[in-house]
Every structure is written in structure tokens, then in C-alpha cells.
């Protein structure tokens, strides 16, 4: 009866090992075929430092916003810019919001845009700059008109190319903020005036609609300021300033400004793609050539392969059979990680590859703990199967605690780090979790499936360590 039970357990263990190996082969084949095929459905997504391209940093002007509204508006800004960039047809672009400081009083909100494969940074800046900032402001009825001399000075400055700040000559007091901006925009369309107040007959005008929150705000503004003028600005340029005759419900407004049909169509297209909720200013640019990115990729792959081979050679030499099983578990780990890079998908950067290589070392560390605990059990006289079970059981608490610590560190780096650090932390955390599963599950499954006895000369050698016979 005991032999029958032992035989059935052996068959189950062998079946589990076969399932693990077959699954690893299938995943490996998926990774291989989707790597060598240039038209693969799941290619590796390379970051800017590996693929080359343009890196743009914009700083958002949030000085006029309530602090509690800033995170939401920055997320809206990121979504708008993503839609805009996707309209360019730029593949694998990355748009991220980044705070320049963790200290609230010193924070400046930045938008990081990475455009892999786009090496003409000037063209990228021009295209992104076409996204309009839409603002609605009330004309200040109490503002004293500028004298002819001041208007002449302003005109001369503009003719000379001198950019005057809004507060120059008190011009910032000409209009009053209403809080209604492009953040509330829902849609835009080209229509033609009928000569009934909505523009001249057959004049191209742009009709815009607001979301529910914007519609309520628009109705509140118009109901409280009947008889006043509501100025409509695009990118700081006054487009029109119609008089408010009555409260306007329904969340619709008209933008007129002597448009041609083509210019009105372009404005509609840009507004649909996204009007910016807050002003932004370009503060830095960087272009990385494709050759430099290719060299960085080759160096990262070379370092990873070399380190992997050295680790496997050490494990097999020092731990023999458990080391060989650990090497197979490492191969399974690498295959799973590469598949996850394609499926999630993870944008691979040089920092991300470094995190991946580091997590391989952690996977080896777990296997070393398991092998050492197995050795201790074998020295006590335990049978091979019992020594394997006890080795994994005794090593589990140390493996668990060390990996939880590493995951906590990864979360902290991801939460507070810059875009570069986030890439490292994300890959590192995935690697820690997968390495822990591969070290515990894969290694244990394969070891238990091997019919080996410590009594035989071969068994003693395979279960030995280092220079021992």
C-alpha cells in the first residue's frame, strides 16, 4: 500500500514538472517569435534612451489655481497631451506628470513628454504648441482705458518683438478670470452664421459645448453678468468679446473671429483633440540619436547575458544538482519576465534593464537559501524528499521577509521618484514578485520530481557542495 501511494505521488510530481517545463517552452516560443518578427503583435517597447527620440519638459502655470485642484488639472493636461500626440501618429510615446519637489511650498508641476523615434525636436515642439488654451474672461467694466500714448508704446514693443508681461501697463486688470477654461470642453464643430446674431450670414464660426460641470458654470457666469462682455481667448489671443444679453443654458457657446473656412476647421480639430486646461511653458528639450540608444541597448543586453551566465555557472559548480535546478528556474523566470514586458506592456529603459538584472540576483539569493537549508537537513540524516520539503519550508520565511522589504523599497521609489526612477522601480518590483514565485514553485516542483537517492555514489555527488566529493 505504501509503495502504491509512493508511486502515485511520484507520478503526480513528474506530471507537475512536465507541466512546468511545457509551459516554460510555450512562453519561451511566444517571446522568441514576437521578438524576431518585425511585425509582431507584442513587440518590446523601448524607452527614449534605448530607441532614440525627443524628450520635452513643460512647466505648468498653476499659480492661479486652488492647491486641491492642481492634481486633477495636471491629470487632465496629461490626458489632453496624450490625445494630441496620438493624433501625430507617434508610437510608444510617454506623457507623465512630475513634481519638482516633495515640499508643497516649492512644488512646480511639470509635464514630461517622450517621443521615441522623433528626432526633429523643433517639429515636435511646433506640433504640440498647436494645442490651444481656451479661456473665458469677463471684460472689466471698471477698467480705465489705456491712453493713446500707452497703446502706441505697446504697439511699438510688439513690433520690435518685445514680449510684454500681462501686468505691463496694468493690462492684466482689463479682464477678470471666470474659471471657465478648456478643461470643461466636451466638443466643437464648424457651423455657419445665419445673420441672426450668431455671426454674419455664411460666416464660419466655431460652436463649442461644455460638459455638465462646465455647462452649469457657463450658465452661472452669464446669469450673473447680463449686459457685460464675455471675452473668449485662445492661447492668450482675444478672439471675440460678445455681450451677454441673457443667461445661457444648455452648455453651448460660439467663437467667432473672422475665420476662414480652413482656419475654423483647424481650430475645431485642435479643440476636439484637446484644449489645454492650464498654460504650459517649454523649459527644456533633449534629443537622443538612434545610434546612441542602440549602443545603450546592446550594452544592457550584454551585461544581462554575461551576468546570467556567470550566475548559472556558479550555481551549478557550487550546488551541483540543486544549482542546476536553480539555473532552470532562473531561465523560466527570465522567460516569464520577458513575456510580461510584452503583455503589460513595459516600456524598457536602461534603468528598467538594470532593475531586471538586479532582480535576477535576488532570484539566485532565494535559491541559495533553499540549497543551504537542504544541505543542513541532509546532514541531519533526512531523506532526500524530506530534506527538500524542509529546505523550502525553513527558507520561506527569510525569502518572504527579504522580498517584502524589497517590494516596499520599490513602492517608495516609484511613488517619489522621477520618470527614470519609476521605470527602474516598476521593473524591479515585478522582478521581485516573479523571482520569488519561480524560486519557490518552479525549483521545488522540479527537485521533487527527480528520483534520486543520497545513498548512491551519484546521489552523494549531485547533492554535494563546492569542492566536496
Characterization of this structure:
By secondary structure, the chain is α+β, with helices and mostly antiparallel strands. It has two domains: 215 residues, Multidrug efflux transporter AcrB transmembrane fold (Up-down Bundle); 144 residues, Gyrase A, domain 2 (2-Layer Sandwich), CATH 3.30.1360.200. It is built from twelve helices and 13 strands. It has a four-stranded antiparallel β-sheet. The chain has a four-stranded antiparallel β-sheet with strand order 6-5-9-10, with helices on one face. It has a three-stranded antiparallel β-sheet with strand order 7-8-11. A hairpin with a 2-residue loop joins strand 9 and strand 10. 31% of the residues are buried.
Notable traits:
single chain; 469 residues; alpha+beta; Multidrug efflux transporter AcrB transmembrane fold; Gyrase A, domain 2; 2 domains; four-stranded antiparallel sheet; 12 helices; 16% strand
Topology of helices and strands:
Layout: H1 2-36, E1 45-46, H2 48-51, E2 53-60, H3 70-88, E3 94-99, E4 109-116, H4 121-129, E5 134-139, H5 148-159, E6 175-181, E7 185-192, E8 204-210, H6 212-224, E9 230-234, E10 237-240, E11 252-255, H7 261-273, E12 280-288, H8 290-343, E13 347-348, H9 350-379, H10 384-416, H11 419-448, H12 457-462
Helix pairs in contact: 1-8, 1-11, 8-9, 8-11, 9-10, 9-11, 10-11
Amino acid at each position: 500500500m505504501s509503495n502504491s501511494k509512493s508511486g502515485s505521488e511520484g507520478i503526480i510530481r513528474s506530471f507537475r514538472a512536465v507541466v512546468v517545463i511545457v509551459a516554460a517552452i510555450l512562453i519561451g516560443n511566444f517571446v522568441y517569435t514576437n521578438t524576431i518578427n518585425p511585425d509582431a503583435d507584442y513587440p518590446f517597447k523601448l524607452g527614449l534612451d534605448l530607441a532614440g527620440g525627443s524628450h520635452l519638459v513643460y512647466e505648468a502655470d498653476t499659480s492661479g489655481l486652488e492647491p486641491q485642484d492642481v492634481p486633477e488639472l495636471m491629470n487632465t493636461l496629461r490626458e489632453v497631451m496624450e490625445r494630441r500626440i496620438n493624433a501625430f501618429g507617434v508610437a510608444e510615446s510617454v506623457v507623465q506628470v512630475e513634481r519638482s519637489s516633495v515640499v508643497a511650498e516649492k512644488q512646480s508641476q511639470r509635464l514630461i513628454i517622450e517621443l521615441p523615434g522623433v528626432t526633429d525636436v523643433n517639429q515636435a515642439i511646433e506640433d504640440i504648441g498647436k494645442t490651444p488654451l481656451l479661456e473665458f474672461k469677463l471684460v472689466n467694466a471698471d477698467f480705465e482705458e489705456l491712453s493713446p500714448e500707452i497703446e502706441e508704446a505697446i504697439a511699438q514693443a510688439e513690433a520690435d518683438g518685445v514680449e510684454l508681461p500681462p501686468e505691463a501697463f496694468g493690462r492684466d486688470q482689463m479682464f477678470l478670470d471666470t474659471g471657465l477654461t478648456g478643461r470643461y470642453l466636451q466638443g466643437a464643430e464648424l457651423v455657419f452664421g445665419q445673420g441672426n446674431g450668431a455671426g454674419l450670414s455664411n460666416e464660419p464660426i466655431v460652436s463649442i459645448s461644455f460638459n455638465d460641470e462646465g455647462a452649469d458654470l457657463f450658465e452661472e457666469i452669464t446669469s450673473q453678468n447680463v449686459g457685460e462682455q464675455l471675452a473668449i481667448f485662445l492661447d492668450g489671443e482675444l478672439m471675440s468679446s460678445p455681450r451677454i444679453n441673457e443667461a445661457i443654458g444648455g452648455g453651448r457657446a460660439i467663437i467667432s473671429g473672422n475665420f476662414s473656412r480652413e482656419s475654423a476647421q483647424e481650430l475645431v480639430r485642435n479643440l476636439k483633440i484637446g484644449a489645454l486646461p492650464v498654460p504650459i511653458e517649454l523649459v527644456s528639450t533633449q534629443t537622443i540619436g538612434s545610434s546612441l540608444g542602440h549602443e545603450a541597448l546592446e550594452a544592457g543586453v550584454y551585461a544581462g547575458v554575461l551576468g546570467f551566465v556567470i550566475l548559472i555557472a556558479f550555481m551549478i559548480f557550487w550546488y551541483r544538482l540543486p544549482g542546476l535546478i536553480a539555473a532552470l528556474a532562473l531561465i523560466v523566470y527570465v522567460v516569464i519576465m520577458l513575456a510580461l514586458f510584452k503583455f503589460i506592456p513595459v516600456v524598457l529603459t536602461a534603468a528598467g534593464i538594470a532593475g531586471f538584472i538586479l532582480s535576477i540576483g535576488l532570484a539566485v539569493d532565494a535559491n541559495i537559501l533553499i540549497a543551504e537549508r537542504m544541505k543542513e537537513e541532509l546532514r541531519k540524516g533526512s531523506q532526500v524528499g524530506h530534506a527538500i520539503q524542509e529546505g523550502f519550508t525553513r527558507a520561506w520565511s527569510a525569502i518572504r521577509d527579504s522580498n517584502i522589504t524589497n517590494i516596499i523599497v520599490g513602492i517608495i521609489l516609484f511613488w517619489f521618484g522621477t520618470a527614470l526612477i519609476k521605470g527602474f522601480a516598476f521593473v524591479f518590483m515585478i522582478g521581485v514578485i516573479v523571482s520569488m514565485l519561480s524560486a519557490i514553485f518552479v525549483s521545488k516542483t522540479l527537485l521533487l520530481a527527480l528520483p534520486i537517492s543520497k545513498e548512491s555514489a551519484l546521489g552523494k555527488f549531485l547533492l554535494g557542495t563546492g569542492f566536496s566529493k
